[in-house]
Specification:
Blueprint (H helix, E strand, L loop, with lengths): L1 H10 L1 H20 L1 H21 L8 H6 L31 E6 L10 H16 L3 E5 L24 H12 L15 E8 L12 H11 L4 E6 L1 H35 L2 H21 L14 H26 L4 H28 L7 H30 L14 H9 L1 H8 L1 H19 L17 H13 L3 E9 L5 H16 L5 E4 L1 H7 L12 H4 L2 H12 L6 H7 E2 L4 E8 L8 H17 L3 E6 L1 H7 L2 H26 L2 H6 L1 H17 L6 H28 L6 H28 L7 H32 L12
Antiparallel strand pairs: 1-3, 1-4, 2-3, 5-8, 5-9, 6-8, 7-8
Helix pairs in contact: 1-11, 2-3, 2-9, 2-12, 5-7, 8-9, 8-10, 8-28, 9-10, 9-12, 10-11, 10-12, 10-27, 10-28, 11-12, 11-24, 11-27, 14-29, 15-26, 15-29, 17-20, 24-27, 26-27, 26-29, 27-28, 27-29, 28-29
Length: 803
């Protein structure tokens, strides 16, 4: 039935032309005029909304009717003892990491930033930044509220004409200020950061929030010993986006060039290479255009990974079809008839590879991350478009003038000439098929066990290049100041908790954080109080009963009274007395959240102990990093769900199409083995399960199953000869072996282009793809024949009668 369907399609050249022109027109509109596509979508959406609203019969409530409604009296609500609302105060914050200018002393220079020359250079740099139209404000070392008993705000840095003695005094004062060291200044005073707020109305290009800031600060400072760099969420995200956009064209050109050269070497015939190359290239063009209609073009994986991936998937089917066309052409058939027979014979395998690959990508819809889900849809659309492209271009190419020369170079084909040398391999495998089958099962199980040690991980800024101003500055902040990202512990007591006990609890929590080496510079009201004049209280070493002793309680209250002399913006940043709530914030490095697993576990355990012994307090670890750690297991769940779902559906599809439960079960080992080897490789190298690896594993499954399908399809076809299972396996191996070898060589060459990329995620994706493709070829050339010869049933004339 499938042969008749594909033969019918191969004969409908006019329909193929219409499909080719229609898809190219629609996709071309998305690529050339995306704004018109968006306008069309907006018009359609507006029309649907208007049509929906016109059918809405619910009466509208006028503003006058709302005004006439009685207002509920809060005194009748039954709520009592509600604490007064705290006054509206703009608190002093140091966790604004949207855009950060980093100033540090170069490694070749001595000293630090706290002297007259360099202090004035920093002041000049800040003034230059503040004068830029796109900079709304700059928060830096000199903006820290002064600590004094009169609540007066002052300046930490001496004036431009200050004496050396004044600078020495200021140096001591700054290094003792907890809001300076660790917040705006490193402990060695060689690094300072400035937090910038941007006026986006005056931003016209990316350089306005990157290069322009660095240039202005460097020129104004006029000190070659000070290096200025720009980092933060804004430049880091810009770099990731620009990197994907720039690398998209580069990777595509490099990948296509490698595949073209490799295909030319393998086919030794320009006509075959041109037709084979046009099919996946057209599929990529259609895909990138169609994604505009679904608003999927801005996915970070779309620009780089999707084009290369779709071209590889399309190239696999193109090569298999072209190998069959050339074989039929060399046997004496015309180009048109050779194309008809090739499509009829290989079309089912191409359809199955597209369906199973799409199923693997569609399984990503179970993922937790929206980026991963969108990536799955992009790939599904791409696989469908590429399948149509291949089944359209190859038959039309056979009818074109190029079709008359498709057989040229067949006798010179590198794979065809060398494949005869490895054909004895199948005899050796079939002779020891039981041992090979045991080895296949045992090695797959061993790799799965090794892969089970993989642990999940996630970074805040993933996909960054190893080089560049923003990531280098980010790593410098990690080392010099403990990280760019902030997390916090919220401490909320009951309203009747005395204030002295709040300070005691804050000190206990601060001690927990101080004992963790990966936690950077914890900051809370306990550190503010310790920085004030007077005797410091070691509250963290006291028990609750000891803290409640009258003499200790009075000492704590007297120290708390000093907080009232501080600016409200500073005090309320870490303590709100009306609600009995306090906060301790701390810095975290962007080294992967898995590195903080034990740290967060210890903190959580100690907070649990404090909660149990102090039920009148609620202690919570909060922040994006902690949320990522809590939900880190979701990466493993996503991978397990997607692979299990995809593997199960693919196995059912193969059982249904081949009408054999036996073949469906046999296909599991060669399909799982490449994934297990790749996962074991990650485990051995000490890598982790990340968002990119979840996508890569699913992609690898979709690609790995393709060779298995082509082998099994030829195996089922050869079963019609009613020969022994060994002979049928041998014939299937000879029929598709050269095509499997050829596609693997071309695909590995194309995937290897990603390994040369700047972004770590892209390199990792390329490396995983290469390993999977190579091991998939090994499994299909060795394990699969042995498993078929060992567990396969004897062929029968009617495939339907096989159980």
């Amino acid at each position: 039935m499938t042969e008749r369907i594909f033969r019918w399609w191969a004969d409908r050249w006019l329909l193929q032309c219409l499909v080719l022109v229609g898809f190219s027109f629609v996709a071309g509109a998305g690529v050339i005029a995306p704004e018109k596509v968006h306008q069309l979508k907006d018009d359609l959406r507006r029309a649907v909304i208007e049509a929906w609203d016109s059918e809405d019969d619910e009466p509208e409530i006028s503003d006058a009717a709302v005004k006439d409604q009685p207002v509920a009296d809060s005194s009748d609500s039954g709520e009592q003892d509600v604490p007064p609302s705290p006054p509206r105060v703009e608190v002093f914050r140091v966790d604004n990491a949207g855009l950060v200018v980093v100033a540090n002393i170069r490694d070749t220079a001595d000293g630090d930033l706290l002297n007259q020359q360099r202090g004035n250079a920093l002041r000049s740099a800040v003034e230059a930044l503040e004068s830029l139209p796109q900079v709304y404000s700059v928060q830096w070392l000199n903006d820290i509220p002064d600590f004094n008993l009169f609540g007066l705000s002052g300046s930490l840095l001496p004036g431009p004409n200050a004496s050396p003695r004044q600078w020495d005094s200021a140096r001591t004062k700054i290094l003792d200020n907890p809001l300076a060291v660790g917040q705006f200044l490193s402990s060695d005073a060689r690094t300072a950061i400035m937090l910038l707020t941007i006026d986006w109305f005056d931003v016209f290009e990316d350089s306005d929030v990157t290069d322009a800031l660095r240039i202005a600060a460097t020129e104004a400072a006029g000190d070659d010993d000070i290096e200025f760099r720009v980092t933060g969420e804004i430049p880091l995200n810009l770099m990731i986006a620009n990197s994907y956009e720039e690398d998209s064209t580069k990777y595509q050109i490099v990948g296509y060039a490698i595949m073209m050269i490799t295909a030319l070497v393998l086919f030794r015939g320009p006509a075959a290479v041109i037709i084979v190359a046009i099919a996946p290239a057209l599929g990529v063009f259609w895909t990138m255009g169609l994604l505009r209609y679904f608003d999927l073009q801005d996915n970070p994986f779309t620009a780089v990974i999707v084009p290369v991936l779709i071209s590889l998937v399309g190239l696999t089917d193109s090569v298999h079809l072209m190998v069959e066309v050339r074989n039929q052409r060399a046997s004496g058939l015309s180009a048109v008839e050779a194309g008809r027979r090739a499509v009829a014979r290989v079309g089912l395998a191409c359809l199955l590879t597209s369906v199973t690959t799409a199923v693997a990508f569609a399984s990503l819809q179970t993922a937790h991350h929206e980026v991963v889900r969108e990536f799955g849809w992009c790939c599904v659309i791409g696989v469908a478009a590429t399948f149509i492209s291949v089944l359209t271009v190859i038959p039309l190419g056979c009818r074109s003038p190029l079709g008359r020369r498709l057989h040229v170079g067949l006798e010179k084909s590198l794979i065809h000439r060398q494949f005869s040398r490895i054909e004895p391999l199948i005899d050796w495998i079939l002779r020891y098929r039981t041992a090979w089958s045991i080895a296949a099962i045992a090695s797959t199980a061993a790799c799965i066990i090794a892969a089970s040690r993989l642990t999940p991980d996630e970074k805040r800024f993933t996909g960054l290049s190893d080089v560049g101003e923003a990531p280098e500055a980010l790593r410098h902040i990690d080392e010099a100041m403990g990280g760019l990202e902030f997390a916090r512990i919220s401490i909320v007591g009951d309203l009747d908790v005395p204030e002295h006990r709040m300070l005691w609890m804050v000190s206990k929590v601060g001690k927990i954080l101080n004992d963790e080496p990966l936690i950077g510079h914890p900051m809370g009201m306990h550190r503010l109080i310790d920085a004030l004049p007077g005797e410091r209280l070691n509250l963290s070493g006291l028990s609750r009963d000891q803290a409640d002793r009258p003499e200790i309680r009075e000492s704590i209250r007297s120290r708390l009274g000093l907080l009232d002399l501080m600016p409200a913006s500073l005090k309320r940043a870490y303590y709100v007395p009306e609600s009995r709530s306090a906060t301790i914030q701390f810095r975290l490095k962007d080294i992967g959240i898995a590195a903080y697993a034990e740290t967060f576990q210890r903190i959580e355990q100690q907070l649990d102990q404090l909660r149990e012994s102090n039920p009148d307090f609620d202690l919570r670890l909060r922040g994006g990093a902690f949320w990522r750690w809590e939900n880190l297991y979701q990466i493993v769940i996503d991978l397990t769900k997607s692979l299990t779902l995809a593997g199960g559906i693919i196995a059912i599809i193969l059982m249904f199409v081949y009408r054999s439960i036996r073949l469906g079960l046999i296909s599991i080992i060669p399909n799982v083995f490449p994934l297990a080897v790749t996962a074991a490789m990650l485990s051995v190298l000490g890598l982790h399960l990340e968002m990119v690896t979840v996508c890569a594993f699913t992609v690898c499954m979709g690609i790995a199953v393709d060779d298995t399908i082509h082998f099994l399809t030829r195996y089922r076809e050869e079963q019609r000869t009613e020969q022994s299972v060994e002979e049928v396996t041998r014939l299937a191996f000879g029929g598709v072996g050269s095509a499997l070898l050829m596609t693997t060589v071309v695909l590995v060459a194309g995937m290897a282009s990603a390994i040369t990329g700047d972004a770590r995620d892209v390199r990792l994706f390329g490396a995983m793809g290469c390993v999977t493709l190579i091991t998939a070829l090994v499994a299909d050339m060795t394990f699969l024949p042995a498993l078929l010869a060992t567990f396969g049933s004897q062929p029968k004339t009617d495939p339907k009668s096989e159980s």
